[in-house]
Write a structure and sequence with these properties.
Number of strands: 22
Structural class: alpha+beta
């Protein structure tokens, strides 16, 4: 027994499953869009957090010049999880500390530092006496050392100190890049070494590292500690990468990225609302007669509005769980792909991880989306009069289509026959008129088409940020570097030829350097760093569009021509500018956006050809050889090159840092292109569904048109014209709003940081416009086929 009009909702849903299917799919895909994007973003943050911890450590702040008494008080705070003292001797590897003939750095740590730095001992234990030491894993092979062996640490004063190896592990990028040995001593042993080397009784100034508890407000805790102990800004250092991922960074650039994320969130929310609203509007239009019958039975406007809203929520009971489940399966696939592509780097990421923030966001946004989307259809349904129950579901009188032609006077007909030419066929005019007749619906459909383009262009801007931010994927990134020990041009070209013949070597390229060259730039005295590029490196600059301004071809011509490098601080050189150096005057002929060398804030980088460098400096050798290895190169191949170059040069192995950064790239790329794929698929479905629903709402009209003689071909062309009107207006609006938004995001993420100017993304724009066009074509196929297969009477009585 029906107690209220709301009791009709489940009964109606059971009887009209097919009619409600498209609306249900819209809600499912809207929830899937939100949950998938939020879930992928959550997984991306997790993966980036793992990478930041691996690379920089699992600490949040470090404090300099802190007393031991204050450190004890800080360690007892409830919001501090782990803390440890730390210091290092010979951090920059410039002093004469050696172990086994290799330059060495010595760190003083507490056992808790292993947790803060994510150091894992592969063998052995933490030192139990002052004469024990932990060495990096790479040093085991370099020194041919084992647990229990005695190693000798040579200090700058020429003394040798003996230590017993208690453990191995804790490889890091600095050690491998510098071909150095890093030893870890307990604090008491480290202080004794410091006293001995510096001939002082005072202890070394230790740095205090802190990891806060998981659920505390880190920014408030930092400010509280700073105020309680009177610490200056210079005393506190932050792990910016990790704090940024946790949402506690005060870096202006990171804050700007938060703003961009908020803009993208609003776009996704708007896309969901428009998608569901468009579908519900078409659904309501199909059931005008049904709502008229409800009005005949006594339902007032308020009850009709409530009926539509409750019906939408009833759809959510089925749609939201399905959308969430689809997104979870998608995220599982992406996490599994990450594990497969970089098993070492993402071994800690669960394949079947569940993103609770993503699921909650999907459910919450799904409900909000449906309630917002139901407002307009509910008002529309409430305005239906009881008379409509008698007149039926035809909103537009068919005579209105033909009234002008039906009542045309004979003179007009005669003039048309003999002189006038129609601009387009009648079915084309009808299709465009169908699209434009209901202005609100036309704008809603057009904006929903446009939003697909806007969303795609907005997320596509992040691909430029990815390609700028993750540097190891630069073409010039080496796996190994052989460096002159005194930074002179002492490496002979013959050495590069011998290295190139070694197994596993892909290519070898060199650069010659002249450091601290006095220069006068814009009437200011500065230092310049002059270095050479070979043809391979110049080809990379051209191929990867690193040239911001100027002409690369002039660099190989006769004359003292150089390239400048963009400076984010605004100190960039200008094309045509003459720089006066102690080596001679040079003319800037181009400006690059990227360069493998960081010159520092006070040094201007100048790049020239090898012939120009040798002519200006009188040198004939190189300062550095960079080596890129093949994909299947082994450690044996690297050791063979190490033996070939000998101990007279500095050997830098950058494979570990490259592997870490490649993992970061794969994580970013997989999730980012996952976003774009989801957006494209949703756009296709939405376009097809919108046009299909709009067509279904006019089924009686189409039956009447068939009854008065419209052919199937004319019917198909009419649908095509209607779809083309939506698509054309949507594409115009999408480009009008999408391109400025793409420029804004590109400027904030890329230009502000690297100086790369914005250009119209023709490739991405062509792709999404092609998707819209193809989806619009595909959208008319099903309704056209459906009409052809139905008899005229079936079409008229389709409801």
């Amino acid at each position: 027994m029906m107690k209220s009009y709301l009791s009709l909702i489940p009964a109606y849903a059971r009887v009209h499953k097919k009619q409600n299917r498209m609306t249900l799919l819209c809600i499912i895909f809207s929830v899937f869009l939100v949950t998938a994007i939020f879930g992928m973003a959550d997984m991306e943050i997790r993966s980036q957090k793992l990478q930041a911890i691996t690379r920089y450590g699992n600490w949040h702040i470090q404090i300099k010049d802190l007393s031991e008494e204050d450190a004890v008080i800080i360690a007892q705070r409830p919001d501090v999880a782990v803390s440890s003292w730390y210091n290092v001797l010979n951090y920059r590897l410039k002093d004469d500390y050696f172990i086994g003939g290799k330059r060495a750095a010595v760190c003083g740590i507490e056992p808790s530092m292993l947790t803060l730095m994510e150091y894992d001992l592969t063998e052995g234990t933490f030192p139990e006496t002052d004469r024990q030491i932990i060495l990096t894993e790479a040093s085991k092979e370099i020194l041919d050392a084992e647990l229990g062996d005695t190693i000798a640490l040579q200090t700058p004063d020429g003394n040798y100190l003996a230590y017993t190896v208690s453990g191995f592990g804790m490889d890091n990028e600095i050690a491998m890049k510098s071909d150095a040995i890093i030893g870890f001593l307990p604090l008491s042993s480290f202080q004794s070494l410091y006293h001995s080397v510096n001939n002082t009784a005072e202890d070394a100034d230790m740095v205090y590292y802190i990891q806060f508890s998981e659920h505390c407000n880190i920014r408030s805790a930092i400010k509280d500690i700073q105020a309680q102990f009177g610490l200056s800004e210079e005393q506190i250092g932050e792990n910016t990468a990790l704090l940024g991922l946790l949402g506690f960074s005060e870096d202006s650039y990171v804050t700007g990225l938060y703003l961009i994320a908020g803009v993208l969130f609003l776009l996704v929310l708007t896309a969901g609302v428009l998608m569901v609203a468009s579908s519900m509007n078409s659904n309501i239009a199909q059931r005008t007669e049904f709502f008229g019958l409800l009005r005949c039975l006594g339902a007032d406007s308020r009850q009709i509005r409530r009926f539509v809203r409750m019906e939408a929520l009833n759809w959510c009971k089925t749609a939201i769980p399905i959308g969430v489940l689809l997104s979870v399966v998608t995220i599982w696939g992406l996490c599994g792909a990450l594990r497969y592509l970089s098993s070492m780097y993402f071994s800690d990421m669960p394949v079947f991880g569940v993103s609770l923030p993503g699921i909650l966001a999907g459910i919450l946004v799904g409900l909000i989306t449906v309630l917002l989307a139901a407002r307009s259809p509910a008002k529309k349904a409430a305005r239906v009069s009881p008379v409509t129950a008698v007149t039926g579901n035809t909103e537009v009188p068919i005579t209105g289509f033909w009234s002008k032609s039906s009542h045309r006077n004979p003179s007009e007909e005669s003039s048309q026959k003999h002189g006038s030419v129609q601009i387009c066929h009648i079915e084309t005019s009808l299709g465009v008129w169908h699209a434009l007749y209901r202005k609100k619906n036309f704008l809603l459909m057009s904006f929903s088409f446009a939003l697909s383009i806007i969303l795609f262009l907005s997320f596509f801007a992040a691909t430029a940020f990815m390609n700028h931010a993750i540097t190891p994927l630069r073409p010039y990134t080496p796996d190994l570097s052989i460096v002159s020990p005194d930074s002179s041009c002492s490496l002979r070209p013959e050495l590069a030829a011998r290295i190139a013949e070694c197994p596993g070597v892909k290519r070898v390229y060199g650069r010659a350097f002249a450091y601290d060259v006095p220069a006068r730039i814009k009437e200011q005295e500065k230092n310049a760093m002059l270095f050479s590029y070979d043809l391979q490196q110049l080809n990379w600059a051209e191929e990867y569009h690193y040239l911001l301004d100027g002409d690369l071809s002039k660099l190989t011509e006769d004359g003292n021509y150089v390239l400048g490098v963009h400076d984010a601080a605004g100190q960039s050189l200008e094309v045509g500018q003459v720089v006066h150096t102690s080596l001679g005057d040079v003319t800037v002929v181009g400006l690059l956006s990227h360069c493998p060398i960081d010159g520092g804030s006070d040094t201007q980088r100048l790049i020239c050809s090898e012939d120009t460098f040798w002519r200006l400096t009188g040198e004939s050798g190189y300062t550095i050889f960079d080596v890129q290895m093949t994909r299947h190169a082994t450690d044996e191949d690297v050791n063979r090159i190490r033996e070939l170059v000998g101990d007279e040069v500095l050997f830098s192995d950058q494979r570990l840092s490259n592997q870490d950064s490649r993992g970061a790239y794969w994580a970013f790329a997989l999730f980012l292109y996952g976003f774009l794929t989801v957006i494209v698929l949703i756009a296709c479905f939405h376009i097809i569904n919108s046009i299909s629903m709009s067509t279904s709402a006019r089924m009686r009209q189409y039956g009447a048109m068939r009854a008065i003689g419209m052919s199937c071909g004319q019917f198909t062309r009419m649908l095509g014209a209607e779809a083309a009107a939506y698509a054309f207006c949507g594409c115009v609006l999408g480009c009008a709003f999408g391109l400025p938004l793409h420029w804004f995001l590109f400027d904030q993420m890329v230009t502000a940081r690297w100086g790369t100017p914005w250009t119209i993304p023709y490739g991405a724009l062509a792709l999404i416009l092609l998707v819209v066009a193809l989806a619009s074509v595909a959208a008319i196929l099903r309704p056209a086929r459906q009409i052809r297969r139905m008899s005229i009477t079936d079409v008229i009585h389709s409801q």
